[in-house]
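Reminder to self: keep the SMILES exactly as supplied, no canonicalising. Ligand is zinc ion.
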Amino acid sequence: MGSLSGMTYKIRTFGDPVLLTQAAAVTDIDGKVIKIVEKMFETLYESESGIGLAAPQVGIQRQIFVWDMDDEPLVILNPKIVESDGEWVYDEGCLSIPGLYVEMTRPKTVLMKGVDLNGNEISFEADELEARLFQHELDHLNGVLMFDRMQPEQRKQAMAQYIMITEQVDPVEGIVRLRAE
Ligand SMILES: [Zn+2]
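Structure tokens returned for the bound complex:
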């Protein structure tokens, strides 16, 4: 997909306080919401590695997330997980914590309900990766990050690993420097 400059948002990364805030429900599905969703898809596709994106990750405190697992762009507003079952282990990653993948256990299947862009009620029953995506993106709408889901020891290790990832080696000088914000 070609680059559409001006059509994408900057993805907020760990340390940005917007990632820790509770998003507000969408009460009015107007042109502004449609525009946000379009721009979120462009941002998701530009990221290449991402399969889902929640509005707080682009600085918007609204209960919206988009995802695309099989060339099918999908969006949900005001989602809730109403049922979950089982356990599934997966190396979870996050566009807002780039480069970090941590083995995390969460429910294997979920039932999620919300509304679509027409205001109609929708529900999705998902398993494994898609179920993980729903739980991960819904966490973003509640200001919850992967780090918050980890056990203390796992969190300590993941934080240390992430600090290492955010440092990069200058290919010319061979020195490690902090990535410029
Ligand atoms: Zn994430």
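Points to follow up:
The mean pLDDT is 91.
The CA atoms of residues 8 and 43 lie 5 Å apart.
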